Amino acid sequence: MNILVLLAGVADIRFPLHTLSLAGDGQIEEPASARRVLSPFDEAALEVALKLRDARPETQIDVLLLAGANSENLLRTVAAFRPHSLRQLELVPTCLWDARLTAQQIAALIDRERLAPDLLLIGREFGDLDEGSIPVLLACRLDREQFSLAQYAQWSGDTIRLIRERATCEEWLDVDRPLLASVTNDKRNKLRHPLLKNVMEARRMNFAKASAPSARPGALSLVGLVAAQAAERRGACRMLEGDAMQQAKALLIWMKEQGVNL
């Protein structure tokens, strides 16, 4: 079983957000001091792959990690889990806000290098954009079916079984063909801590790069980048007291006072 994991990283919320700027070619520039970490969804996708390898050591895990600020540290973090291969993914140009272009670049790289993983795992949100369209478009580009919001995976005989919860039901899917699964975080896929000896070894590693250029014209270009203005809060905040029924009655009275016709 060959598993390909795509990781991107997000801004580290333990530190103040760094300032972004827009270069003349429309690319976003980040300072060298920017700090990034694996998102909960990145970690979940990686942990799902690691659990499958725990059960079947012959499982091969290959990882592509998006280039960018602090990518060297992120590569060392992932290397400590000893994937079969780990490379820095360089999108040329890097326009993550253009999900169609990004999916096309990654799919072209996978096809060009004939990676052909049995299972492709990607966090439900690739990077910091918080919109989740890249996994969907990537599945379309690769002509693969997609299993979204996967929470867990396990072996069922010689077949991988993906699991997710929908409303009050738990859905299971046996992977009987090449598939893309977007992974969400769950207590069952919380990323483990690597062994200390592997952490020390990762500090001495050098990492290869995988370039995914695109000559497609018409990429969405950003023409401006400024700090968002904080929304002004108006009016006083009133806390509703009592049980749910009392709160509902108080809310109904307030809405009628505001002229809302129910």
From TrEMBL:
Pfam families: ETF. Coiled coil: none annotated. The keyword Electron transport applies. It comes from the Bacteria. Keywords: Electron transport, Transport. GO terms for molecular function: electron transfer activity. The keyword Protease does not apply. Residues 35-213 form the Electron transfer flavoprotein alpha/beta-subunit N-terminal domain. Belongs to the ETF beta-subunit/FixA family. This is Electron transfer flavoprotein alpha/beta-subunit N-terminal domain-containing protein. The lineage of its organism: Bacteria, Pseudomonadati, Pseudomonadota, Gammaproteobacteria, Pseudomonadales.
